[in-house]
Every structure is written in C-alpha cells, then in structure tokens.
C-alpha cells in the first residue's frame, strides 16, 4: 500500500489554520475596516513610513512572509478538498494549479520582502 | 433470490443535513483566507514599489465596497477561528489528568482565548506602538 | 383500537430488486403509544400492515448494532429512537446512507467486513507468551488510552454519516480506523508497525476531512473522528521523522 504524501500539505494547512485562527480576524479588521473607515484606528496607523519600517525589520519580514505564505498553503489545501466535497473531483492539473499558486505566492512574497531590504 | 444492490447517488449530499451545511461553510472560509493573503501580497508588492504605489493600495481599501468586503471577510474569519479551535482537539492524543480525560472543550477554550489575547496584542501594537 | 390512540405516518423507502428499478417511498399509518421505538413501529407495519417490509434487528437495546437506519435523514438505531419525538410530524425511514441497498432497509455490509479484516482487529503479542507467563497486567491509565474505542458495536451509523466514505468507498472508514487505533493503543499489543501501513495510506486516515459527523451519530461514544485525526498527527510526525527516528516518536 502506497504511503500518502498528504502529511506535507496537511502540516502546511494546519500551520496556516492556526496562524489564521489567531491573526486573520484582527488583521482583516485593522487593514480592511479600522484604518480605512477610521473606526478604532487612527488613519495613519498604516502610513507608508510605518509599514515600510515594519517590512524592513527582519522580524517584520518573517511575520509578513509567514502570514502570506501559510495563509496561501492553508487555502490551497482546503479549497482542493472542498472541490471534492462539492462533487467536482479535481485531478492533477487542479492540484498543480492550487498548490502551485500557493508556492508562487510564497516565492513572490519572499522576493518582494527581500527587495524591500533593511 | 434476486440480488441487485442499489447504490444511491451522492449529488447534493451536503444539502441534506444542517450539520453538513455548517461543515461546508467551515471549509469554504479557506477561500477568504486565500483571498486575504492575496490582498496582503498585493500590499507588499505595492509597498516595494514606493510610497505612491502603496498609497494607491491604501486608497483602494478605503473604497466602500472594499470595506464592505472586509466586513464579510471578518465574519468569515471569526467563523474560521471558532470552528478551528472547536475541531483541533480531535487531532490531539488522549490526555488524562488525575485519571480523568481532559475534555476537548477545555482545549478549544484555550484556543479561543489565544485568539482573543493575540488579537488584543496586535491591536494594541498597531494602535499605540511607536506613536 | 382505543379512542385516544395516536397514529403516526411512517414513510418507508422500499426497494425490491425483483420488481423495483429504484427505491420508492411507501406510507403507512401506524398507531403508537409513547413508549414505542421506531423499530416497534416497523414491527407493527410488518406484523399488521405489510409483511413484505424487510429490516434487520435483534437485541432491541442498542448493543447489537443491527437496526441502524436513516430516520428523517439522520443515522439512528431504530430501537433507540422513539416515535413520540417525531409526532405529529411524519417519519421517513430509509436504509443507512452511503451503503448499497439490498432490500428495503437492509444494506450490504460486505465492504465493512473487509475493512474490519484489513485493520487486524486482534492483539498481536509483542513477544511469544506461554500460559506460565501469567496474565497481562494493565493499569487504569493504560486502559483509558483505548477503552472508548473498544465500545464499537459495528452498527455502521458512522459510515452512513461519513460523506468521504459515501463518495469513495475505498476509504477504510470511521469504525474500522477507530478499531485499528483501539489495538494500537492497547498496551498488550505489539502489532502497531503492521497496522500503520494502512494508516499512512490515502485509504487510511488521509481520506478523512474531519467532517466529524461520525462521532456525532455514534450511539456508543466511540469518537472515531478522534481516533482518525489523532492518527493524522502521529502519521504526519512519523512521515517527517521516520529517517531520523525510525522507531517512532512516542513509545
């Protein structure tokens, strides 16, 4: 009986799930409601110098990368299984597209964060 | 004796039971997780292009439709967090303390608490740090 | 029939392979009293209204696992489900979901038997023992690691609950995997390595998406969802650490 490689993707899904369970609500609120609509957040909380400083900080880079990459891997894995639940039964091309996008997104995030520099 | 076992189709299985509908809702929150990651990725990209590009991204987020979308995404992410901690205990080995099993609900409560505490910390950091 | 006797309408999904191309609902008016189970309702139908209705039952006390069926779309033991809880509404009784219907409320259980056999559901001793070695000694803590998983009565409600099994019958399924874990977790057993090949495969734990409905419907509190997903964690740990720690992470 062939051993499944599911653990790789399941672990990434799990890590992304934990991180998003902890951070997604507050981040969505801050970036999408608090700052833009000015509710509970000063409008300059996400000003360019402040956010740039955060992205230039090595710790900030790690956080941004972890959030973007792990959220993407979580989504790719769950969406793949969700399609199956909806009766779509996706094959290898869809698998490559979903997990490939997560990979591409992660690489892009890393490259951009390195480009932003210190 | 005639034997002709009948296999019932699975189409629309999840619509037949509210439990399954809640499961599908839980699973589809992943689309929002992916979407939000994409929004952040675009933000990082615009940040890397300089002040004007980044402020254009911020301006887009200020659009009423964007705020409404994030309102919807916030609800989805709250449901994700709630269901995530609810099911996480199922992945853990049986733990017994003083001869009694540690109830899953206790572990879920720890998760929900962690979300609250970390959310408060992040909010405080963004609101007040360095200002 | 006494004047104050209530009548409940029971719809039964009939299927007679010799005459039906596909299952069809048939309605019966069943007089009942508050102490009657759905099983007793079916027995009334068979005894007085329609002797051709076929269904399995035995103990009438939720321990034999024979009388599983879908009651208003939910997997239940018919001996443990009461007509009074559905009155004055209608009751719809169908064969357990996700399993082929042989006749009326009788499903094919052959696949499940094969799944049970595949998990090696017996103590595989760690080393050869003779009677002179005496009995195994097991502490309450050791018992607690597997006791709930030994409560399974093979009623198949969890298979009726599991949509992953419904969509892919190659999946080993909740009860079989819970039983697999029952033996792995038993301190007397030494056969874990033999069973893990099944666990690690796609047909093992990795077909499960933690819908969790199996544990909801289990009449015995086995919690198969826990058994399976616990093993996802250990299967994943073993996947990553198998070259570094081939004997496993936990003893």
What is the total domain count of chain B?
1
Per the CATH scheme, the topology name of chain A is 3 helical TM bundles of succinate and fumarate reductases
Give the termini separation of chain A: 50 Å
| Rg over CA atoms of chain A | 17 Å
List the chains of the largest interface with their residue counts: A-B, 54 and 53 residues
Report on the biggest sheet of chain B: 2 strands, antiparallel
Any idea how many domains of chain A? 1
Q: Which structural class fits the helix and strand makeup of chain A?
A: mainly alpha
For the record, what CATH class of chain B applies? Mainly Alpha
Q: Under CATH, the topology of chain B is which?
A: 3 helical TM bundles of succinate and fumarate reductases
Distance from N terminus to C terminus of chain B (CA atoms, Å) equals 84 Å
The overall average pLDDT of chain B, rounded, is 95
Task: Write structural notes for this entry.
The complex is a heterotrimer of chains A (118), B (131) and C (251). With 118 residues, chain A is mainly alpha-helical. Chain A is built from four helices and no strands. The longest helix of chain A is centred in the N-terminal third of the chain and has 32 residues, at 6-37. Chain A has one domain: Fumarate reductase/succinate dehydrogenase, transmembrane subunit (3 helical TM bundles of succinate and fumarate reductases). Chain B has 131 residues and is mainly alpha-helical. In chain B, 69% of the residues lie in helices and 3% in strands. Chain B has one domain (13-128): Up-down Bundle (3 helical TM bundles of succinate and fumarate reductases), CATH 1.20.1300. Chain B has a two-stranded antiparallel sheet. The model of chain B has no long low-confidence stretch (mean pLDDT 95). Chain C has two domains: 6-107, Ubiquitin-like (UB roll); 110-241, Alpha-helical ferredoxin (Fumarate Reductase Iron-sulfur Protein, Chain B, domain 2), CATH 1.10.1060.10. Helices cover 31% and strands 14% of the residues of chain C. Chain C has a five-stranded mixed sheet. Chain C has a two-stranded antiparallel ribbon with strand order 6-7. In chain C, helix 2 runs parallel beside helix 6 (174-184) and helix 6 (174-184) crosses helix 9. Chains in contact: A-B, A-C, B-C. Chains A and C meet through helix 1 and helix 3 of A and helix 7 and helix 9 of C.
